[in-house]
Structure formats: C-alpha cells, structure tokens
Design a protein that fits this description.
Chain A: GO terms for molecular function: ATP binding. The complex is a heterodimer of chains A (about 575) and B (about 325). With about 575 residues, chain A is an alpha/beta fold. Helix content of chain A is about 35%, strand content about 25%. In chain A, strand 19 and strand 20 form a beta hairpin. Chain B has about 325 residues and is an all-alpha fold. Chain B has a domain of about 180 residues: MetI-like (MetI-like fold), CATH 1.10.3720.10. In chain B, helix 12 packs antiparallel against helix 13. Chain B starts with a helix and ends in a 14-residue tail after the last helix. The chains are: A alpha/beta (about 575), B mainly alpha (about 325). At the A-B interface, helix 2, helix 3, helix 6 and helix 7 of A face helix 9 and helix 10 of B.
Chain lengths: ~575, ~325
C-alpha cells in the first residue's frame, strides 16, 4: 500500500447554488487513497462528507459545482473530466455502494438484470454472459441461492439482501475504487456487521481501495486503515485509525469521540450509578390482585410501583385475503412491566416486534390477545371517551422529528396542540405553558414562532419531547428517539431525557436498536427477537452476562468494541 | 393473479349494474311523466291526448309497479335488449351499433394521438438539457388543459379548413375527415397526460435508484428509458383509463362542431327529444367503455410494477 495514490484530492472546493446564494459545502480538503487502502471519511451530517462522495463519482446533485481543486484518479482529473469520460469510469473503475438499500434498487426490474447492467453498459460481456456473471456476482456478495435471487424483484428481498445486491453491482466490473456512502447505516447492527465484513473481505481479496463515508466512529475504527475527520466542509484531522482514535489532536475529534455513547463508557456508567431515578410522590393506586401478579411473575417489583403491566401480549397481522397462510405473529406472548419513574428499554432488530409492543401498550394498536394494565386499570378494551382521557397520561416521541412535526404549524402551535385538544387553559395560559415547555427541553422561547423546517434535527426532537410532556403524562414512550440524529445531537437529547426522567419521575419505555444508547438511559432492558421477549433484567447484568445466545450476538455486533 | 382478476371482474359487473340503476332512477323517477314526454316526441306536450299516453304507457310497461318495471328492464338489458327509441321505434342497441364505429374511430384516434403527443412532450421536456426548451415544453400542458374543446375545434376549422383548406371541416368521409376532430379531442387529453407524466418522471428521476444507475455508468438516455419511464408510467396510464370514459362526453361536443355522425350526435339528439331509452343506452355504453378500459389498465398495472401483485414476503435474513 505504498507508492502513487489511486485517488488524490487536493484543495477541493465545492459549493451549492441555492436561492439564498452560494453555500460552500467543501472548503479546500485534501485526501488521498492508496491502491487497496480503506480510508474512512467521518463526520456528522452537513459536514460535507457525502458531497465528497458525490464529487468523486461525478454525481453532484443539481446546483452543486466544483469550484477549485483537483481529484486525480488513476491519472485523470475527475474535477475537470467531461461527462463521457466520467461515464466510462463510473461503474467501471469506480464503484458506488449507496446509502439506503431499500430505495436504491429499481423496483420494477429483476435483480439479475440490475446486476448485469454495468457489464452491458461497459461492454464487458454480452447479454447472456452478463446474466450468467450476475448470478456468480450475487453468490460472491454472499447471497444464498443466487440464481433465485437474480429472478426476484427488490421488494421480495430484505434490507440486508438488497445491500448485498448493491455490493454485487458495485463490484461487477471489478473497479479499483469503491465509494461506500454510509453503506450500513440503514441496517440492523447484526446485519451491519456481516455486510461490513463482506465488503472488507471482497475488497481485500481483490485489492480494491475503499473510501468509506460514515458518521459512525465505531465503524471507522473497525474497518479503516486511515481516518479523516470532517467538520463544516474541512478535514480537521487525518491519520492512521489508532492514532486518531486513541490520541485525537483536534478538539472536534475529541468532542465526537466523547459524544459516542459507548458500551463501557465511563460517563454513562457514572450517570447510572449516581443518577438513579428519584421517584416523585405518586398518587395512591389500586393494587393489582394476585392473579395479575402471578401472570408476570419473575419480577420482584411491588404492585403499587407498577405503572404499566403487559400480560401475554400477542399481535398477529392477518395474512392478505386470498392467501392460505395464517398471519404472522409480530409479537408473541410478551409480558413486561414498567414501574413509576423507571425506564425500560426494548432492544432488538427491526421487525423484532418492539415498536408493535409499544404501540399496544399505549393502545395505538389493538392486541390480538393479552392484557394491558395501566395504573391498576385494565385498559385493553377501553374505547371512546375513556380511551381519549387515557391519552393524557401516555405520550409518544417518535423516531423521526422530520416526519412527526407538521411542517405547516408553528412551534408554539405544535407544543400546545395537546392542550388545545383537551381544552386545557385559556389561550394566554396555553401560550405561557408553551414557553415553559420549551424551557423544559432547553430551547429558547424565540423559537415559538418558527416552523419545523427552520430547526435542526436535534431541536425538532426537543420540540417533539416538549409536545409529549405538555399534558404531564405518566408514561412516555420513546420509539428510537435519537436514531435519526447525529452523534452530538444524540448525546444532547439523551442527556435531556435522563434529566427529565429524574426531574419528573416519568415511567419510560425506550425503544432502540442501539445498545450503547440503551446503556446510557435505561435501568432495565428487554431483548426482543422475532416477536419474543428473550430476556429482561437490569442493564448492567444483561450487558455483563447476557443469558441468551441472541443477546450475546447482539452485543458482539456493536461496532467499535475493539477500539475501546 | 386469479384472485386479483376475479375481484376486478366483480367490480366491473358492479359498476355496470350501478350505472344502470342510477340512470334508471334518474330518468324514470324524475318529475315529468315519461309517457307524456314520449307521446309529445320532443314537441309540445299540450297536444297529447290522454288515450295516446295511456297506450304508450301500456306499450312501454309504464303502468306496471316501478319495482317490476326495473326488474323487467334490467333482465332485458342483461340479455342485450335496451328497449326501443321513442322517436324512431328502432331498437336502442341497433341505433348504438350503427353510430358506434365512427365514434370509436374518433375516440381511438384521439386517444392514440393524445398518448403519443403527451408522452413526447413529457419525455422531451424531462430529458432536454436546454433550459428554455424544458421550460417551454413543460408549460405547454397547462395551456392545453385550459383551452376548451369547442374553442380549439373552431380555431382548427377556421385555420386548417377555411383558411388553408388542408382538411375538410365536416363529415366522416375517409381519413382526412378524421384528422381535425381527433386532434380537437386529443389536445386536452394530451395536455393532461403530458402534465401527469412529466410530474411522475420528475419524481422518478429524483429517486435514489436513478443515482445507482448513473453510478453504473449509464447514459442519460439509458437512465430515462431504462429506469425512469417504466417507474413513472403508472400515473399517466391510470389517467388514460379514466379519460377513455370522458372521450364519449367530448365526442358530443366535437361531433356537433364538426357535424360528424356518431354516438355524440345521437346523444345530443336523444337528449333534445327526451328519448329516454336512447339516453339510458348511451349512459350504459359510457359505463361499459369506462369499465373495459379500467379493467385493461388494471391488468396492465402488474405488468409494469411487480409490487402490485406479488405477495411474496421479504425474506428475513441477510
């Protein structure tokens, strides 16, 4: 891995033309990738790292232009190359593995055809040969039964399988460089590891260089030879992985490292020991009778402390009409309890049933069977006004603050909407309340008149939390509340949630696929897999000595373990 | 697939029955005595004697209870008997069959033209790199949609028949007589197709899978025709299905403007004369056209997009 760099970026400047004028996205970066080397470009969203990936592949979005600098690739300057030269390089010597496998394959074409396409475009094979080669490529990408997959359409494959198809496409013409733009951030942690392992093996065997774009320092630590840290369009630090992660020189890198919620992170451990949830005085509750307790035995909690108890919850999604098969069991006999002021985390891959379980707890989805007891009352079959009154006491914070806030409402309207819905207070009182709520989530009152589009992701999620707190609920369900955010916004939101729990004594169900996040915020954790709750227990205990084989696998798959 | 087909067929039958029932309700239950209207034959109802109306009432079964009338007529209709025209006494089906070919020619010609024209404008507008051409082409549709059919027809006749004498303005003699009416009928339809197709092409071209295709080294043309067109084709196709039913309505105006015989002319005449069986016949013909084209469109959908019908579940593991 010495000698001439394969890709040599020098003083690259890229800007976007917008209505508000020209916005610089990349401000004079230098970066080189040697043949066969894996270089990780790490940064938060908005840092310009994806713009670099687009520029290297010659696919800058409309309005983007290279203002200065050079990108020398195998002797040619990509910054100055014309369209047909770039077309000859794309898919031939530079392969791209895109970000989101769910939407990056053409939905109306068979997989085999899409894998064969680069070979046909670059005249590396005729149609029948390309078709045969596509099957081999799918096999090399780690797909079992490649011949069958080749005949299928993308929607018939899982996210991980689709990403393998995209890997096969990127490798089809045996490129010399692969640009992998957040190749696994849309995938579950266990799938992520397999995919990254596979990209690693394939590129190592073939001597292909990789420019890995990622926001995940853990991924970078595990996979790259060298790391370049990018912030606000500039590369602030670059060097061998160990050097950058072990002794970061730039304050931004240090901040980024500190923000990563680690599995054994000292800050997180400290918070857990020192900041145990202080239960606030709670109103007297009707104790559950003995039968209820026996149904959820195995938990030493006292009945009076239980806020929510789920007993044998089952959710079956009925098969489509005309199908012979019976429905799928999304949730299979899940029993759990959340005590007042306690945070229970549910972890598991997507499709494991954690969101469905949460939705049943707050009666947004009706269970097929089983019971939900909230504050001593069986709420499984409540409806109409009673259910509506119950909604005051349980609120949800959704995954994406980009989708959960109406773009046409002001922040003040969004935050006070629950109050309006329950006709609480006068207009003036509600507006005072909105200010107080924003203050509670540490946002300035100046934001009240703004619209969601004017706020950052982290600010939006604070607004969503303020809205959830408006009615003073007893139970807060957070469904992956930080997974759409950058690491540093993530850390801030998690801090806020921990503080809110301590101050308000909320019972909280926290859903996440990220074990490190769970460690920081929850006192107990439940691991879900294929609709079943495999094990529950105190976070430290489950993480230190996982009982179930699946939990062990999940813990082992977390990226960046080797780095810390 | 069989299940999908059966459900679509069932829906089609239901739509036909509903069209018959509603038109029956509207035409027979509305105020005004059908027999009096029939006896007057579009003329002045005061000259009609009571004997005449009674005879008519008996002849058309209008003296039966309404439910019975409905049942008998529906039964007849199922067997292809839609009654006789009040004015001429000719069976309605016969009348329609005679008028249908010229209108079918017109409608088919117009739809074909609309498809070709609309798609061409949308494809060119979406693929050209010249900004002025793109702007021009993509603003054409809104212009076309807002121009009323009869006005376009009159302008075309004025220019192409009277001024330049290229195409005949009237009649149904040969192909050249078809051109002007078909163009008139096609223009607004083409504009709609262009508008919807251009919009869905723009959406498709912004999808990440287009990025994947570009990253393979695909040319602009390959990306447009190989990846975007098929993904973008469902909305305009659905529109075509809906418009085919509207072409009949358009035919009423166009056939009047161009003095062309056909269903449109028959409809206009039957409405003026309050010839209830013929009007109902036309309504049912419209429903049949609509149902058949919708059925055809529904059957083409799964060929364009496999997600519409395949029910295979995504596999679990990677």
């Amino acid at each position: 891995m010495t000698g001439e760099p394969l890709l040599d970026i020098r003083d690259l400047r890229i800007s976007y033309r917008t209505r508000a004028g020209t916005v610089p996205a990349v401000r004079g970066i230098g970066l080189s990738v040697l043949p066969g080397e894996v270089v990780a470009l790490v940064g938060e969203s908005g840092s310009g790292k994806s713009t670099v990936a687009h520029a290297v592949t010659g696919l800058l979005p409309r309005g983007g232009s290279v203002d200065a600098g050079s990108m020398t690739f195998a002797g040619a300057d990509l910054a100055r190359a014309d369209e047909s030269t770039l077309r000859g390089l794309r898919g031939r010597t530079i392969g791209l593995i895109p970000q989101d496998p769910m939407v990056s394959l053409n939905p109306v074409q068979r997989v085999g055809h899409q894998v064969a396409e680069p070979l046909i475009i670059h005249r590396l094979a005729d149609r029948p040969a390309a078709r045969r080669r596509a099957v081999e490529l799918l096999q090399e990408a780690g797909l079992a039964e490649p011949a069958q997959v080749a005949r299928q359409y993308p929607h018939e494959l899982s996210g991980g399988m689709r990403q393998r198809v995209l890997i096969a496409i990127a490798l089809a013409a045996r490129p010399r460089l692969i640009v992998a733009d957040e190749p696994t951030s849309a995938l579950d942690v266990t799938v992520q590891r397999k995919i990254l392992d596979h990209i690693g093996t394939l590129t190592r065997e073939r001597g292909i260089a990789v420019l890995l774009i990622t926001h995940d320092l853990g991924v970078a630590a595990d996979r790259a030879h060298r790391v370049a840290v990018m912030s606000r369009g500039e590369i602030v630090e670059t060097g061998p992985v160990r050097q950058v992660l072990d002794s970061p020189r730039h304050p931004y890198t240090r901040g980024l490292l500190a923000a990563v919620p680690g599995l054994g992170h000292p800050g997180a451990a400290l918070r857990e020991n020192g900041g145990a949830p202080r239960p606030r005085p709670v109103p007297a509750v009707t104790p559950l009778d003995d039968r209820d307790l026996s149904a959820v035995a195995g938990n030493p909690a006292t009945a009076s402390g239980d806020l929510v108890v789920a007993e044998d919850l089952v959710k079956e999604f009925s098969a489509r009409r005309g199908e012979r098969r019976t429905g799928r069991r999304a949730v299979d006999s899940v029993s759990l309890r959340i005590r007042r002021g306690e945070t229970l985390a549910l972890v598991g891959e997507s499709g494991s049933g954690k969101s469905t379980t949460a939705r049943m707890l707050v009666r947004l989805t009706d269970p097929t069977s089983g019971r939900v007891i909230f504050d001593g009352q069986d709420i499984t079959h409540l409806d109409g006004g009673e259910l509506r009154r119950l909604r005051r006491r349980m609120q949800v914070v959704h995954q994406s603050p980009y989708a959960s806030l109406s773009p046409r409402m002001s922040i003040a309207e969004i935050v006070s909407e629950p109050l309006r819905a329950f006709r609480i207070g006068t207009r003036a009182e509600r507006s005072r309340q909105a200010t107080a709520l924003l203050d509670q989530v540490r946002l300035p009152a100046a934001l009240l008149g703004r619209r969601p589009a004017e706020l950052s992701g982290g600010q939006r999620q604070r607004v969503a939390i303020a809205r959830a707190l408006a009615l003073g609920p007893d139970l807060l369900v957070c469904d992956e509340p930080v997974s759409a955010l950058d690491v540093s916004s993530q850390a801030q939101i998690l801090d806020l949630l921990v503080d809110l729990q301590n101050d308000l004594g909320l019972g909280c169900l926290f859903i996440s696929h990220d074990l490190a996040v769970v460690r920081q915020i929850a006192s107990r954790v439940g691991v879900m897999h294929q609709g079943k709750l495999l094990e529950t227990g105190p976070v430290e205990k489950v993480f230190a000595s996982p009982f179930h084989a699946y939990t062990q696998e999940l813990l082992a798959a977390v990226p960046g373990r080797s780095a810390r | 697939m069989r299940h999908y087909l059966l459900r679509r067929l069932f829906q089609a039958v239901f739509v036909l029955w509903a069209a018959y029932t509603v038109s029956f309700g509207v035409l027979y239950l509305l105020p005004g005595d059908p027999a009096t209207i029939m006896a007057a034959g579009g003329g002045d109802a005061t000259t009609v004697t009571r004997e005449q109306t009674d005879a008519l009432r008996h002849q058309y079964g209008l003296d039966q209870p309404l439910a019975e009338q409905y049942a008998t007529r529906l039964l007849h209709a199922v067997h292809g008997d839609l009654g006789r025209s009040v004015q001429s006494g000719v069976p309605v089906t016969h009348l329609l069959r005679q008028a249908l070919p010229t209108t079918a020619q017109l409608a088919a010609g117009a739809m074909l033209l609309a498809l070709v024209l609309g798609s061409a404008v949308a494809l060119l507008g979406s693929s050209t790199r010249r900004r002025w051409l793109r702007q021009l082409l993509l603003s054409l549709p809104s212009l076309g949609v807002s121009a009323p059919t009869f006005w376009v027809g009159l302008v075309l006749v004025q220019l192409l028949s009277f001024h330049w004498r290229i195409f005949p303005a009237f009649g149904d003699e040969g192909f050249s007589a078809l051109v002007l009416p078909a163009v008139t009928l096609a223009l607004p339809a083409a504009a709609l197709i262009a508008q919807v197709f251009a919009k869905s092409l723009r959406t498709a071209l912004a999808e990440p899978y287009i990025q994947t295709a570009l990253a393979k080294g695909a040319s602009r043309r390959r990306v447009l025709f190989g990846h975007a067109v098929r993904n973008a084709s469902i909305p305009p196709l659905t529109l075509v299905g809906i418009m085919a039913g509207n072409v009949l309505a358009g035919a009423v105006v166009v056939e009047t403007v161009f003095a062309r015989p056909g269903i449109g002319r028959e409809t206009a005449a039957a409405v003026t004369a309050q010839d209830i069986p013929v009007v109902q016949g036309v309504v049912i013909l419209g429903a049949v056209t609509f149902v058949l084209t919708s059925l055809a469109v529904d059957l083409v959908h799964p060929l364009l997009d496999p997600r519409i019908i395949t029910t295979t579940r995504p596999a679990v593991a990677a």
